[in-house]
């Protein structure tokens, strides 16, 4: 069976949870902050998170439902949370003692597949360790702990199953090839282990039980088989919105212990052990890893700052912490469940206002779901040069141009500022990502996979499905040919940074120039490394004949670039 279906959670935990208004009286401070805003304390963050967790837990009568025997292992992967965690819930329900495990897999810290960038850059490495620290703390609060082991999961899990006599390892299902290979190897190796059971002369082989948990819509609730996923996002969205429902969050018991007797719970590695450099984020958004920070951010964005009702108007911004939700790093690490966001949106709509903006956050989360399901349908083609449509094009791998892009030295402030933000914080707005992607593939003509791997290395919210899904779209090799778009720098600058505030935040020298010169500073800035495909003017619909590079597709008046943004 492809994934483990949990009907039990629906029947046991559909009762709605009544929340006291006083729950919101104490709030976290700016735990995510721009440089100018004073910091936060972990305690404040924890307090808000605890209050949110309470809403998504169930009281002790749930304990009566526990009916299993022996030890069950939960192998934490990209589901680093206690709330709405199906693998953790199933392990708890089916055993007398749960052993939560995280394997620090050395392969995550090697190079990216083709171009050898650090597979997990320093900022995401730091974020991941914060996630683990927080997970451990939250598990301890619920009566458990986190066993941290260093090595390959497919080697560690069988040995742990043997040591603790665990018949089942529960984990969240993944969809891309690297993760699927690990699942496959873990299954095979677990089957090699023989465990003694109650009946004499009878042996049991432990198994890996995978459950679905990464999307807002459950895979089992889609109105079509994943292999028949619609080719366009709009078809997909309309179909699920009319035919499927979003499940409630699983209400977790508020006590999950006791754990089995473990002599040494291991240590969460520090950056040096991972071979990573500690980087201090002193400009832009500072993200803290973990469920507590994630829940605090939901609280802050929705309830404290009341920003949900204007999300649709602000979401295309680039500067500051609040133009969009900034949930993505926590969603990608699984510190935040998309179903929890859905429930909070619905609660907000009931208690405050329901409008286009409140809906639009769900609209964006459906994009995230779409790319996840697409990765099942399209398999490895998502990672190949020609993409799902197997498009043949001439791409360049010009190192000088790529380095200029990567280091934020292209001579185009809008590109450079975004690339500097990415290196300094591990984050870039959606607007920025679309612009720098378009610039790399269309204006520079560079192999899109180099850009995608650079994002893979740097992004805090790196997720193979959303990253490669968006890059294939941006490069015009995605499954939907209609999504093929060119982002004109002059037009984007005019629409989204008309005063040059964003570029001068990241390139402070530009702040001295008059506003209208900040995007095209001429001699006072680096000389542009390429000529834009459609020239440097704001009237971007006249193709330029003097292009520096052969872009994807090779023709300067290519009809594939039908939409100019
Ligand atoms: C070239 C490129 C690469 C990208 N790589 C990633 C990636 O590795 N991981 C990732 O999570 N997102 C990726 N995105 C999508 C998007 O840019 C980020 O999800 C978004 O900027 C995160 O900021 P936010 O949480 O404030 O988003 P919001 O605007 O607040 O949106 C809410 C949530 O919706 C989801 N979402 C929004 N837009 C998209 C989208 N286009 N695709 C998928 N999900 C979306 C995210 O989970 C996001 O947190 C990429 C986009 C591009 C153009």
TrEMBL record:
| Cofactor, free-text remark | Binds 1 5,10-methenyltetrahydrofolate (MTHF) per subunit. Binds 1 FAD per subunit.
Q: Which cofactor does it need?
A: (6R)-5,10-methylene-5,6,7,8-tetrahydrofolate; FAD
Query: Which residues are marked as site: Electron transfer via tryptophanyl radical?
Result: 395, 448, 471
- What keywords would UniProt list here? Chromophore, FAD, Flavoprotein
Decide whether keyword Flavoprotein is in the record.
yes
The UniProt record gives the binding positions of FAD as: 311, 324-328, 364-371, 461-463
- Compositionally biased region (Polar residues): 537-548
Region ranges (Disordered): 537-565
Q: GO MF terms on file?
A: deoxyribodipyrimidine photo-lyase activity; DNA binding; FAD binding
Residues in Photolyase/cryptochrome alpha/beta domain copies = 70-201
Q: Which InterPro entries match?
A: Cry_DASH, Crypto/Photolyase_FAD-like_sf, Crypto/Photolyase_N_sf, Cryptochr/Photolyase_FAD-bd, Cryptochrome/DNA_photolyase_1, DNA_photolyase_N, Rossmann-like_a/b/a_fold
Q: Which GO terms describe its biological process?
A: photoreactive repair
**SUPFAM superfamilies linked:** Cryptochrome/photolyase FAD-binding domain, Cryptochrome/photolyase, N-terminal domain
* Annotated function: May have a photoreceptor function.
Instruction: Tell me its family.
Output: Belongs to the DNA photolyase class-1 family.
| NCBIfam families given in the database record | crypto_DASH
Q: Entry's PANTHER family?
A: CRYPTOCHROME, CRYPTOCHROME DASH
Q: What is this protein called?
A: Cryptochrome DASH
Q: What is the organism of origin for this protein?
A: Lithospermum erythrorhizon (Purple gromwell)
């Amino acid at each position: 069976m492809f994934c483990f279906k949990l009907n039990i959670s629906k029947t046991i935990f559909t009762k709605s949870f009544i929340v006291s208004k006083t729950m919101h009286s104490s709030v976290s401070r700016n735990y995510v902050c721009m440089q100018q805003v004073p910091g936060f304390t972990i305690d404040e963050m924890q307090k808000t998170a605890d209050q949110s967790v309470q809403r998504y837990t169930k009281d002790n009568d749930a304990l009566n439902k526990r009916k299993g025997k022996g030890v069950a292992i939960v192998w934490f992967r990209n589901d680093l949370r206690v709330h709405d965690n199906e693998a953790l819930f199933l392990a708890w329900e089916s055993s007398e003692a749960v052993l939560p495990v995280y394997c620090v897999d050395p392969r995550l810290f090697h190079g990216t597949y083709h171009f050898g960038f650090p597979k997990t850059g320093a900022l995401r490495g730091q974020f991941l360790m914060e996630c683990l620290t927080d997970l451990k703390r939250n598990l301890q609060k619920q009566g458990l702990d986190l066993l941290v082991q260093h090595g390959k999961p497919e080697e560690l899990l069988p040995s742990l199953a043997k040591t603790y006599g665990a018949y089942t390892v529960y984990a969240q299902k993944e969809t891309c090839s690297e993760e699927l290979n690990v699942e496959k190897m873990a299954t095979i190796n677990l089957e090699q282990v023989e465990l003694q059971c109650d009946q004499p002369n009878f042996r049991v082989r432990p198994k890996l039980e995978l459950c679905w948990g990464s999307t807002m819509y459950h895979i089992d609730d889609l109105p079509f088989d994943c292999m028949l996923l619609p080719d366009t996002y709009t078809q997909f969205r309309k179909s699920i919105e009319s035919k499927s429902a979003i499940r409630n969050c699983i209400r977790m018991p508020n006590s999950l212990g006791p754990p089995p007797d473990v002599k040494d719970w291991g240590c969460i590695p520090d950056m040096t052990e991972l071979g990573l450099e500690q980087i201090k984020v002193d400009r832009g958004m500072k993200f803290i890893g973990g469920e507590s920070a994630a829940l605090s951010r939901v609280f802050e964005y929705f309830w404290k700052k009341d920003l949900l009702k204007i999300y649709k108007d602000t979401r295309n911004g680039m500067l500051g912490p609040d133009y969009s939700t900034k949930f993505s790093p926590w969603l990608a690490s699984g510190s935040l469940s998309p179903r929890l966001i859905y429930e909070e949106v619905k609660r907000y709509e009931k208690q405050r206002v329901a409008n286009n903006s409140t809906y639009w956050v769900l609209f964006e989360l459906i994009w995230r779901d779409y790319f996840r399901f697409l990765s099942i349908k399209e398999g490895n083609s998502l990672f190949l040069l020609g993409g799902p449509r197997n498009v043949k094009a001439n791409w360049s791998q010009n190192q000088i141009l790529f380095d200029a892009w990567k280091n934020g030295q292209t001579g185009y402030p809008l590109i450079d500022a975004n690339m500097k933000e990415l290196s300094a914080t591990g984050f870039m707005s959606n607007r920025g990502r679309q612009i720098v992607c378009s610039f790399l593939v269309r204006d520079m003509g560079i192999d899109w996979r180099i850009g995608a791997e650079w994002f893979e290395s740097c992004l805090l919210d790196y997720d193979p499905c959303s990253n490669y899904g968006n890059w294939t779209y941006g490069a015009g090799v995605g499954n939907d040919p209609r999504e093929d778009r060119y982002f004109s720098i002059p037009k984007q600058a005019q629409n989204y940074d008309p005063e040059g505030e964003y570029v001068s935040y990241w390139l402070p020298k530009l702040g001295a120039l008059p506003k209208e010169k900040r995007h095209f500073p001429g001699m006072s800035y680096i000389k542009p490394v390429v000529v834009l495909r459609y020239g440097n003017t704001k009237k971007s619909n006249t193709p330029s004949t003097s292009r520096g590079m052969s872009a994807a597709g090779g023709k300067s008046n290519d009809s594939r670039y039908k939409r100019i943004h």
